[in-house]
Amino acid sequence: MMTSITITPCTGPGAEIGNVDLSQPLSDEDFSAIRQAFADHGLIFFRDQTITPEQHIAFAERWGDINVNRFFTPVDGYPQIAEVRKEPDQKTNIGGGWHTDHSYDQEPAMGSILVARELPPKGGDTMFADMAAAYDALDEETKAKLEGLEAVHSSKHIFGGEAAYRSESDAGERLHNADAADALDDVVHPVVITHPLSGKKILYVNAAFTTDIVGMSREESMKLLMPLYAHAAQDRFVTRFEWKPGSIAFWDNRATWHYALNDYHGERRVMHRITLEGCPLAA
Question: Is 273 marked active-site?
Fold first, then answer.
């Protein structure tokens, strides 16, 4: 049986999936086509969808086990769904800088499925950066320098009791369980991983959660990391996704960075996010 699903690559990373209704059960053929697009692009978008929280959960469970987020306030009645919300009087948004979700976990999350629930009249786009393309574009000397290196990833300075979000009262009230961040051991991952689905080499460090290179001082670590961050954030590796009613983004946390733009002060924005469990990462 053939699938009628369409897959349209973006000008940057990612692809838009068309001719599909996620409120309905997917055939094996349709799901296989979507899964292949996710493996190929690391980032897929859906438009004009109307799904309930139950349908959001059902779609996510088709991919694997759901990670119940430690730090985000859950949607009432749906602990599997984290609420990402900014109220009109709040200045700080969640995710307002380049990062990779859950890199601070021993087995980082496979991906996140974000559904638009309430959008500002304008603004609030999300930027996505392709870490495979960023790695491929490095010069050979830098690639050789990175080979075999490992990096420390931590959640404490973002979600812990004395962390950045906690010091901002308007952001802190949207988070919970700071003790979990303080108790969570830092983890170590290769600076360059081999993606478990695509087999591509991926630059796996990010400005939010990567704190040090193993065996280097903080100063030495930043001297190596900061140019990598600047390199990976170049426009040629980035897609800017404009949210509209009914939009859904599904990104691979192992293959992409993302950045939620905070350019809609005085407006409300509410998103529902489900994160999927991943696996250990290897060089």
Answer: yes
